[in-house]
From TrEMBL:
Keyword Hydrolase appears in the UniProt entry: yes
Keyword set, alphabetical order: Glycosidase, Hydrolase
Family that this chain belongs to: Belongs to the glycosyl hydrolase 3 family.
Database matches in InterPro entries: GH, Glyco_hydro_3_N, Glyco_hydro_3_N_sf, NagZ_Beta-hexosaminidase
Name of the featured protein: beta-N-acetylhexosaminidase
UniProt-listed NCBIfam families: PRK05337.1
Enzyme class of the recorded protein, top EC level: hydrolase
Organism of provenance: Neorhizobium galegae bv. orientalis str. HAMBI 540
GO molecular function per UniProt: beta-N-acetylhexosaminidase activity
Keyword Aminoacyl-tRNA synthetase listed: no
Coiled coil: none
A Pfam short name: Glyco_hydro_3
């Protein structure tokens, strides 16, 4: 069978259309991503995930979701309980470091219980961005704190909880979205501080977690490194900072191609993502014309990108066999005393 293409695609609704099945079958995305529009009720989610994998003939294909807690939680009550934001966990950490770390691990372990029931095996968590005062609220309470040490320690606990449950994490948004004064869904943030300041603050959580297997890029310009291109499409940022200074050698996926921080047509954006050095082009909104433009630019996985993708595929585990009821009770007990 021919190799998967270096892309992750979404879908338009709760069931696949015939056109989506045909596109997936013919173009072979490496994986898929779900959003709230795809998640209506439990059996439907399970069926959708299975049908995505069936379309490409890969029963273990990665299926991603942003299930952070707080305002970024794609599957919500009554299907899955409402979880607190990273900021709430960060406040517990500031009161009692051990309790904060434990609660963060437990919540990720609960994400694994919740999501694997549907066949979802990748959670786009932890958020390792370190906000500064006055930054755009696009990160806001999605961050664990305002200092790199808190963010790194809490991020590691979150990643470890997912892995203990048999899921894999995706660090975001490398090399750091915390200074963005604009929402990259709508416009391009530009960060003008020195490289030394970035290395001493923004990049630190990613350095601490550089051995994780997946990360998602930031649609942000760092003028001290590349004044012309956002990190997602900047060969200089990816080679010198993400691969070089940070030392991340895992699978690097773009943030969503349809976000308007990136300029040009969807096809042009996808081509620049490929050319900049990201391993995987991520496209989320399920709009068929946009997906067709992405698949024209995406390339088959090969070389280092293929090696990294295979390392991800080999890392999915069976989980630690812990009791969901016990984990859930401990988690709520910690939150109740905070």
């Amino acid at each position: 069978m021919s190799e998967s293409k270096a892309m992750i695609l979404g879908s338009s609704g709760p069931t696949l259309t015939a056109d989506e099945v045909a596109l997936y079958r013919d173009e072979r995305p490496w994986g898929f991503i779900l959003f709230a529009r795809n998640c209506v009720e439990p059996a439907q989610i399970t069926d959708l995930v299975a049908s995505m994998r069936d379309a490409i003939g890969r029963p273990d294909a990665p299926v991603l979701i942003d299930q952070e807690g707080g305002r970024v939680q794609r599957i919500r009550p009554p299907m899955i309980e409402r979880y607190p934001s990273a900021a709430v966990l960060g406040e517990l950490y500031r009161q009692d470091r051990d309790k904060g770390l434990r609660a963060t691990w437990l919540m990720s372990r609960l994400h694994a219980f919740d999501l694997l029931k549907f066949g979802i095996n990748v959670d786009c968590l932890p958020v390792l961005d370190v906000p500064i005062e006055g930054a755009s609220n696009v990160i806001g309470d999605r961050a664990y704190g305002f200092d790199p040490k808190t963010v790194a320690e809490m991020g590691q606990a979150a990643a470890d909880g997912l892995k203990a449950g048999g899921m894999l994490p995706v660090m975001k948004h490398i090399p750091g979205h915390g200074r963005g004064m604009a929402d990259s869904h709508h416009e391009l943030p530009v960060v003008t501080v020195s490289r030394a300041e970035l290395e001493a603050h923004d990049f630190l959580p990613f350095v601490a977690m550089k051995n994780e297997l997946m990360a998602m890029s930031a649609h942000i310009v760092f003028t001290a490194i590349d004044p012309d291109e956002p990190a997602t499409i900047s060969r200089k940022v990816i080679d010198e900072i993400i691969r070089g200074h940070i030392g991340f050698d895992g699978l690097l996926m773009s943030d969503d191609t349809s976000m308007n921080a990136l300029k040009g047509t969807i096809g042009e954006r996808a081509a620049r993502i490929v050319g900049g050095g990201c391993d995987i082009v991520l496209h989320c909104n399920g709009v068929m014309d946009e997906m067709k433009a992405v698949v024209k630019e995406a390339i088959p996985l090969g070389g280092e990108a293929l090696r990294r993708a295979r390392a991800v595929e080999a890392a999915f585990g069976a989980g630690d066999g812990l009791s969901e009821d016990a984990i859930r009770a401990e988690f709520h007990g910690l939150l109740a005393v905070s």
